[in-house]
Amino acid sequence: MTHGLLSTMHMLLFRSVELVVYTWIYKNWHFIELPWNSPWTWILGMLSVDFLYYWFHRISHESNIVWASHQVHHSSEEYNLTTALRQSLMQKYYSMFLYFPMALCVPPSVFYIHEQFNLLYQFWIHTEVTIVSEFKMNVHVKPFT
User: Fold this and answer.
1) Residue 100: which residues within 8 A CB-CB, separation 6 or more?
2) Dihedral pair phi/psi, residue 80, rounded to 5°
3) Using alpha carbons only, what angle is made at residue 66 by residues 63 and 70, rounded to the nearest 5 degrees?
4) How far apart are CA 25 and CA 96, in angstroms?
5) How far apart are CA 125 and CA 64, in angstroms?
6) CB-CB contact of 84 with 125 (8 Å)
7) Given CB 3.0 to 4.6 Å as the disulfide criterion, which of 7, 53, 87, 126 pairs with 83?
């Protein structure tokens, strides 16, 4: 419980830093002007966040230094919603660098909203709810394997 509370408080601070850096990169370096209200921008944002999260998660299992912070997440003996909250404080620092290239074309508001949707979706992945399990495992969670 204490780790979850500490992790959540840290996440609130970190999200602010991440969004400020992402916005700075977008304002100074973006080379494609995508309108935030275009459906294609939102589709690109969704696919980009999902793709980059997939690669971060894969790297976190294959790289020793990233695994050192990610293994906390896999230390639970039960598969429930608290498993999704069990994150190392350092994990977000590793993952943010994978998302920054999106700032070259995806507006900050689109990125941030899709990142939040991805976070909410992660809660469902860490449950044993069977209603969406076929979709989430065969289409969304591992589309490239």
Assistant:
1) 21, 22, 25
2) -145, -170
3) 120
4) 13
5) 24
6) yes
7) 126
Cα distance between residue 140 and residue 88, in whole Å: 24
Q: What is the dihedral of CA 39, 45, 51, 53, to 10 degrees?
A: -140
Could you tell me the pTM of the whole model?
Answer: 0.80
CB atoms near residue 37 (< 10 Å): 10
Would you write out the chain's pLDDT as a tens digit for each of its 145 residues? 566 677 677 777 788 889 999 999 999 999 999 998 999 999 999 999 999 988 988 888 888 887 877 777 777 777 666 666 667 777 777 788 999 999 999 999 999 999 999 888 877 776 666 555 565 555 555 544 4
